[in-house]
Write a sequence for this structure.
């Protein structure tokens, strides 16, 4: 069975600095999707970034980028120029390519932004 | 993307009662999902709600406790029945469109006293 592991329960970063959140996963599949979701205190889960495993190029969305290491099964999220609004729980997630595959979430990392 | 409206946003309920949570999507979707997020925890899938068929429940969740309706392609409800304090959680509705990612409603924060 697939698993997603986030080893950092909490992290803090100074405003305007860069922070990297770690995620590892386990799967026997060769093609799959990986995601980072953000959950601010408002509770709504917001998709931050998505990566297809067959793409070698790391996904980027403005200040958010990933370091996808397929062989190592690692999928870290880098947040540049951290802002107060980035404070939230961040969940790494995995989904297989089949239509009926479910999304598997990690336990989350709570990110604090220090002013 | 999809806009998902979930109601109520929060509620405080007496033990032994039931609460029905509604989820409305602004487009037709085949699969809708209900998640539970216990305090400080990750998301756990309760069930998948397909229009025109019975919901598919994950291990540890049963229809008697969490009955789900899916009357059309834009709407679903989840009922939390015979509630106890252990049911205090955030309940989230989610849909998946043609792309791989899921979109979520705002969540319902349920407190059972």
């Amino acid at each position: 069975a697939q698993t997603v592991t986030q080893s950092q329960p909490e992290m803090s970063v100074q405003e305007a600095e860069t922070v990297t959140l770690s995620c590892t996963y386990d799967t026997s599949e060769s093609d799959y999707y990986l995601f980072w979701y953000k959950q601010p205190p408002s509770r709504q889960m917001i998709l931050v970034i998505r990566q297809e495993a067959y793409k070698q190029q790391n996904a980027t969305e403005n200040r958010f980028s990933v370091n996808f290491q397929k062989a190592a099964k690692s999928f870290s999220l880098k947040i540049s120029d951290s802002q107060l609004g980035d404070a939230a729980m961040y969940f790494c997630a995995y989904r297989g390519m089949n239509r009926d595959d479910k999304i598997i979430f990690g336990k989350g990392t709570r990110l604090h932004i220090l002013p | 993307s999809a806009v998902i409206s979930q109601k109520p946003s929060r509620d405080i309920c007496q033990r032994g009662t039931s609460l029905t949570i509604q989820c409305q999507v602004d487009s037709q979707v085949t699969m809708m999902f209900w998640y539970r997020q216990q305090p400080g925890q990750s998301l756990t899938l309760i069930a998948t709600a397909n229009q025109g068929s019975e919901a598919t429940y994950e291990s540890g969740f049963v229809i008697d406790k969490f009955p789900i309706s899916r009357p059309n392609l834009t709407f679903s409800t989840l009922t939390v029945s015979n509630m106890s304090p252990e049911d205090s959680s955030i309940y989230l509705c989610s849909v998946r469109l043609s792309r791989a990612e899921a979109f979520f409603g705002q969540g319902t924060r349920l407190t059972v006293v």
User: Anything to note?
Assistant: Chain B touches chain A through 18 residues (CB under 8 Å). The radius of gyration of chain B is 13 Å. The CA atoms of residues 34 and 93 of chain B lie 5 Å apart.
